[in-house]
Structure formats: structure tokens, C-alpha cells
Design a protein that fits this description.
The complex is a heterodimer of chains A (about 150) and B (about 400).
Chain A (H helix, E strand, L loop, with lengths): L1 E4 L2 E4 L5 E6 L11 E6 L23 E7 L36 E9 L2 E9 L5 H13 L1 E3 L4
Antiparallel strand pairs in A: 1-2, 2-8, 3-4, 4-5, 5-7, 6-7
Chain B lengths: L3 H5 L7 E4 L3 H15 L5 H17 L1 H6 L4 H6 L13 H4 L10 E12 L5 E10 L56 E7 L33 H9 L9 E8 L2 E6 L2 E6 L3 E6 H9 L15 E3 L2 E6 L2 E6 L3 E6 H9 L15 E3 L12 E6 L2 E5 L4 E5 L1
Antiparallel strand pairs in B: 2-3, 3-4, 5-6, 6-7, 7-8, 9-10, 10-11, 11-12, 13-14, 14-15, 15-16
Classes of the chains: A mainly beta (about 150), B alpha+beta (about 400).
Chain lengths: ~150, ~400
């Protein structure tokens, strides 16, 4: 099943749910920036952009992913110097890399640019001790994800 | 009839979605929730209840189930315990100042919509992250250096406050601010604002939202949207000359007052909300503030000649770079205004009122008076008249 929105295409592997939107003009901030959420659990309608409301529902083997786009001119900044979607490794995960630290949850965060667009990829695993499997699960999703230039 | 899977994938306006979850996983989620809610409920009723319950559980699951809220806990809002995993407010740990502490920088922000603390508009939360004070971490891919390099260390549970959230523990970066800094430390604390942070910090406009944090607060921050808040916002809030709040509002002299890094706003229903700024605010507090001889301010910060003035119910404070800030009150203040005040021949006051027991002005039988020195002379109040003495 393919999800395509605002220049990001995900050929969703089995066992995922994904949703995407762009920042509407009615809200403060730059319009048109993409936010993509994907998880191995059902995504509730009300979610924080970096996962609150979802991560609390993760089981030990579950994964949540947020792909958050910044303003286009941000891509020129040092924070986004890395190019291309990251390859996620188990060593990237830590119980401290979370918006809100929670018992045994584990997170990883990557800033990068792709197709001239600036992104943060934030991954939350339900269990730090299962980070090897979690990294593999995320890897499958990222391998099926393509970022195109912003229209 | 809507299927379970479709109902759980109900999309928000402007949202697209897809699911390859197996029906059993979706059903397990339903089963988990319905076990809380009982089985005798309609699907519509279930979804409504599930949404409400989800919010409460997400904010403070243990507290929601095990104990009723207390008034004091409500001051700091949900998720205020040390185990909640959220980060403390800067006001809690920074002597009441809603500002990044020394050694930290704004690293990113998000908003919570419909916040009562911001008059129903968006409330912005800005993460102040530690700096990599002692080292950087080669190859770090998260924009965060190793915790051994941070300018602060992880702690929680500060005494004397209901804001027991964590200090400098979370290695997370929202990423909109100070993007030229490739590596920073963990989140030291959080600043709140009713104005977008790109107006007062080095931040971009990429908007993130987390409405679950809408009511997070500290007992060292303002507790409500008041006329003082409205005046502060109208002045430009943190970006104004007042800069950040210092603690919350206090009741004083029949009204209320709020301290800021750069001044003060005083409010009483009959005079409204008025600011005092900089050295004038400092002097105002030194002479007793709203409950002192000057009373409440009845003007804002006004330019006067080569300085500034704020008028009060019973006097004024005048300031210039060469004379500093000095108060005049009562009959001397009235006479000073008659003589043209700061732009008249007397110029700015160079002293506050001091008691003078004797002098050439003294009438027979008078017990002494008050003298204020000005650049161009003195005014002496003997209790019946105000005498002008030119230099």
C-alpha cells in the first residue's frame, strides 16, 4: 500500500499504519511543511508531532516514526548537513533521546536533508532492550521511503 | 456501518493515511480500550470515550487512575511529577525567570493550541538546551553531544515546588532554533510564551504541535490570562523591553503586580494595567511599589526631554542617564509639574525627597519639611507651601 503526500512516498511494509499532512495556512508558522507519522500500532487521531499520544501505546516490539519537515531555507544550516535518509543502527538508540523519557522506551533522532528539504527523523521504540529488532523494522520502512523535491 | 479498522484510521482534515496493520492488531487495540470502558457501549460512544480516556491516560496515567487532583498539583498542570518524563520549566530553576538559564540556548519549540493561559490562542513552549560546554562528540548524528559534554547534569524533584519535572535529562532537539549550532546538549528546561518564538529567538517558523502540553505550568509562572498578561502581550511580551516574567502575579494594594526582568506591570481595575520600565521600575519598588506613597502608575513609560517619566496616582518618577531615577510625590510633585516638570527650568530631580529640619526657607514654628533637589534648583515643602530655590 502506497502513501504519497507532499513529495514523500512510502510503500508501506506490512504491519504499519501511516498518516501524513502538511502545515495548514490557518495555523501559526510556515505552511506546507510535511509531517509523516508511521507506527506499528494504530495511530490515534490526536497526536503530538513527535509522538505524544502514540508512544504511550507502544508495546515492547512496537515502533513509532515521525518525519518532521523544517522550512526549506533551513536546509542550508549546519544542523542539516547530513544528506539522505539515515540508516538507523541499534547503537543510535538511547533511553534519553525522547521528548518525554519513559520507562524502557528508547529513541533516536537524525537531522538531515533530502532533495533540498530539511528533516528530522525521530524514532521511538517500545523497549530499549529490543533495539536491534526495532532498528531492523525501521530500516524496512525507510528503505521503502522516497523523498522528492518540494513542489 | 464503519469497520473497526476504518474507524481507527479516521483522518483529520488535510491528512492522508494508509494502514497495513493486521486486523488482529487493530482489534487488540480496541479490546485493550474496551476492557477499561466496559462492553455495553455503542461504537460511537466507545470512540468518544476512548478519545477522552486516551488524553487523560497519556497526560498522567497513574495519577488519573489512582488519585484525585489536588489544587496545588493543578498549579503545575499535568505531568508534573519526576516520573512523568517531561522537562522542568526554566522559571522553576532559574530564580523565577521564564528565560533560558546561563549556559543554555533555545534549541526548538512547539505550540499547544487553544491555551487558556494565552487567552485561548496558541501557547509556545521553547526548549532551552544545554551547550556542549566541555567537548563535542565526533560522529554524533542526532545534533546532540554526549551527556558528558553538557553544561548541566540530569536531576529532578527540586524541593519547594510542584514542578518536579526533569532538569537536563532528555537528549532531544526540536531543531528549529540555533540551527547553525550543529551539536548542543540535552534539554535544560522550558520557556513558555504566547508569542511565536521566531520573534524573539533565533528560530525558524517550522511549526510543531503538541496539545497535550497545553496546561503544563510551574508555580513560578503566571497562573492565568489577566489584564496584566494582555498588556504584556500588547507590548511585545518577551521581545519587549520588559523581557521575561519573574515569578507570577502577586496581589498588592487593592490590585496586582507582575515582575519582569526589565520592569513591572501593575493593575487595578480603576487605573488599568500600566508598566514601569528599567530604572524607574527599580526605583518604584525601592520606594514601596503600589502600596507605597506613589500608589499605582497612571501612565506608561513616557519620553520626557532627554529621559523618561512614569506618572503615578500621587507623584512621578523621572529618569535620565545623567541623574538616575528619582521619585517626587505630593505637593512637590504638583509644583514640579506646574513648573514644567522634566522639560521645565528645574530639569530632572537629582535626589529623592529628604526631610529637612532647618533652613533659610523655614517659617517660625514650622517643624521641618521635605526637600527635593533638581538639576536647576530645589523644591521644599514646609507643609503649607512649596518653596522654589534656584541654583
Amino acid at each position: 500500500m502506497i502513501l504519497e503526500h507532499a513529495g514523500v512516498v512510502v510503500d508501506l511494509p506490512a504491519g504499519w499504519e501511516a498518516r501524513a499532512r502538511t502545515q495548514p495556512s490557518s495555523a501559526p508558522g510556515r505552511t506546507g511543511n510535511l509531517l509523516l507519522h508511521a507506527a506499528t500500532v494504530p495511530l490515534p487521531a490526536s497526536r503530538g508531532d513527535f509522538g505524544s499520544g502514540v508512544v504511550e501505546t507502544l508495546g515492547p516490539d512496537d515502533v513509532f516514526v515521525s518525519l518532521f519537515e523544517y522550512d526549506q531555507q533551513d536546509a542550508a544550516k549546519a544542523l542539516f548537513a547530513e544528506k539522505g535518509l539515515p540508516v538507523v543502527r541499534p547503537a543510535d538508540f538511547s533511553t534519553a533521546v525522547l521528548q518525554r523519557t519513559q520507562l524502557d522506551h528508547s529513541g533516536a533522532q537524525f537531522f538531515f536533508q533530502a532533495a533540498g528539504r530539511a528533516f528530522c527523523l525521530h524514532v521511538v521504540l517500545g523497549s530499549h532492550s529490543r533495539r536491534s529488532a526495532g532498528a531492523t523494522t525501521v530500516g524496512r520502512l525507510l528503505a521503502a521511503t522516497t523523498v522528492k523535491e518540494r513542489a | 456501518m464503519t469497520s473497526t479498522r476504518d474507524a481507527l484510521l479516521a483522518l483529520e482534515p488535510g491528512e492522508v493515511g494508509a494502514s497495513t496493520l493486521s486486523p488482529s492488531i487493530a482489534q487488540r487495540a480496541v479490546d485493550r480500550a474496551t476492557s477499561w470502558l466496559g462492553r455495553r457501549t455503542s461504537r460511537r460512544g466507545f470512540l468518544v470515550k476512548a478519545g477522552l480516556l486516551g488524553t487523560a491516560l497519556a497526560v498522567d496515567p497513574k495519577g488519573y487512575v489512582l488519585r484525585p487532583g489536588t489544587a496545588y498539583a493543578a498549579v503545575c498542570g499535568p505531568g508534573a511529577s519526576s516520573t512523568s518524563g517531561w522537562t522542568v520549566f526554566c522559571a522553576t530553576i532559574n530564580a523565577g525567570a521564564n528565560a533560558c538559564p546561563p549556559g543554555s540556548i533555545a534549541a526548538g519549540w512547539w505550540k499547544a493550541d487553544g491555551a487558556s493561559l494565552c487567552g485561548g490562542k496558541a501557547r509556545y513552549i521553547i526548549d532551552c538546551n544545554a551547550t556542549c560546554a566541555t567537548c563535542t562528540t565526533p560522529g554524533a548524528r542526532a545534533g546532540i553531544c554526549s551527556s558528558s559534554c553538557w553544561s548541566c547534569s540530569c536531576q529532578s524533584g527540586l524541593p519547594g515546588t510542584c514542578d518536579q519535572r526533569k532538569v537536563c535529562c532528555n537528549a532531544f532537539r526540536y531543531g528549529q532554533c540555533n540551527q547553525d549550532v550543529r551539536q548542543i546538549g540535552g534539554v535544560h528546561c522550558r520557556v513558555v510564551s504566547c508569542r511565536p518564538p521566531w520573534g524573539f529567538e533565533e528560530c525558524s517558523t517550522a511549526s510543531a504541535t503538541d496539545n497535550r502540553t497545553r496546561d503544563h505550568n510551574s508555580d513560578r509562572l503566571p497562573q492565568a490570562y489577566t489584564p496584566i498578561t494582555a498588556r504584556y502581550l500588547a507590548m511585545g511580551e518577551i521581545a519587549s523591553v520588559l523581557r521575561a516574567t519573574v515569578y507570577g502575579e502577586v496581589a498588592v494594594g487593592g490590585g496586582s503586580a507582575q515582575r519582569y526582568q526589565g520592569g513591572r506591570i501593575s493593575y487595578r481595575r480603576d487605573v488599568g494595567a500600566r508598566e514601569t520600565v528599567g530604572p524607574i521600575a527599580v526605583r518604584f519598588v525601592q520606594v514601596g511599589g503600589e502600596a507605597g506613597p506613589l500608589g499605582y502608575p497612571i501612565s506608561g513609560h513616557e519620553t520626557a526631554g532627554r529621559g523618561a517619566v512614569t506618572r503615578f496616582e500621587r507623584g512621578r518618577i523621572s529618569w535620565s542617564a545623567t541623574t538616575g531615577a528619582h521619585a517626587t510625590t505630593g505637593a512637590i510633585a504638583r509644583r514640579y509639574v506646574e513648573l514644567g516638570a522634566e522639560t521645565g527650568s528645574l530639569g530632572f530631580p537629582v535626589s529623592d525627597a529628604r526631610v529637612e529640619r532647618d533652613g533659610p526657607w523655614k517659617r517660625a514654628g514650622a517643624r521641618g519639611g521635605l526637600r527635593v533637589e533638581f538639576q536647576g534648583g530645589s523644591l521644599v515643602d514646609d507643609g503649607r507651601t512649596v518653596v522654589l530655590q534656584r541654583r
